[in-house]
Write a structure and sequence with these properties.
Elements (H helix, E strand, L loop, with lengths): L10 H33 L1 E5 L14 E5 L2 H4 L7 E5 L6 E9 L3 E5 L2 E4 L2 E2 L15 E5 L4 E5 L9 H4 L2 E2 L3 E10 L2
Length: 180
C-alpha cells in the first residue's frame, strides 16, 4: 500500500492526528482523576467543617476535620470514637463522641458519665457546669450508639434526640486539617 503525501501540506496538518490523540488522552486522564477523587471522597475520606462549639475544647467551632468513612462500612463505632453523624432532628451533620454502644446502659449522675454502672474518666471535658445534672440510665438498643458532645453544657446530643442508628454515622474523625 502506498501513501501519498501532499508536498504542499503544512507540517502542522501532518501532526494533527497525534495532537488530537494526545488531547483525548489528557482529557481521559483528567476525567479518571476526577472520578477517583469523587470515589475516595464518597467512600474513604472526606473533609467536614464543625459548625458549633459542642465539642470544645477537643474540637473548636470552625475547625475542618478529616473523617474516615471506610472503617464503618466494615465495622461499627466504638466507645470513645469522635464521629460525624446525621442529627435525627435536622438531618445536618454533627460531630459528637460515642459514649455507649448497643446493649450498654448509659446515664449521667451529678455530671459524671456512667456506662454499665461504672464511672467513666473523661479527661477531655470540663464538668464544672454539669454539677447537679442527672439523666438515665437508659439502655442503648442494638445497632445504635449514644452520642454526647464534649462541651456537655451546650451540646445538643443523644440526651435530646436519643440514640442514633449506626447507619446514620457518616464516619470517624481521623484528624484536623485546620487549625493545625
Amino acid at each position: 500500500m502506498t501513501v501519498a503525501i501532499d508536498p504542499g501540506a503544512d507540517d502542522d496538518e501532518l501532526e494533527q492526528p497525534s495532537d488530537d490523540a494526545a488531547t483525548v488522552r489528557r482529557i481521559l486522564w483528567f476525567a479518571g482523576v476526577i472520578v477517583a477523587l469523587l470515589l475516595i471522597r464518597s467512600f474513604v475520606v472526606e473533609p467536614v467543617r464543625v459548625r458549633s462549639d459542642s465539642m470544645e475544647p477537643t474540637v473548636p467551632s470552625g475547625a475542618i476535620l478529616l473523617i474516615d468513612k471506610f472503617s464503618y462500612l466494615i465495622g461499627d463505632p466504638d466507645r470513645g470514637d469522635v464521629v460525624v453523624a446525621a442529627n435525627p432532628l435536622t438531618g445536618e451533620s454533627i460531630v459528637k463522641r460515642v459514649v455507649a454502644v448497643g446493649g450498654d446502659s448509659v446515664g449521667i449522675e451529678d455530671g459524671q458519665l456512667i456506662v454499665n454502672g461504672t464511672s467513666v474518666v473523661e479527661d477531655y471535658i470540663d464538668n464544672a457546669e454539669m454539677d447537679g445534672f442527672f439523666t438515665g440510665p437508659d439502655v442503648v438498643p442494638p445497632g445504635q450508639v449514644y452520642l454526647l458532645g464534649d462541651n456537655r453544657d451546650t451540646s445538643e446530643d443523644s440526651r435530646v434526640f436519643g440514640p442514633v442508628d449506626v447507619d446514620d454515622v457518616e464516619g470517624r474523625v481521623i484528624g484536623t486539617i485546620w487549625p493545625l
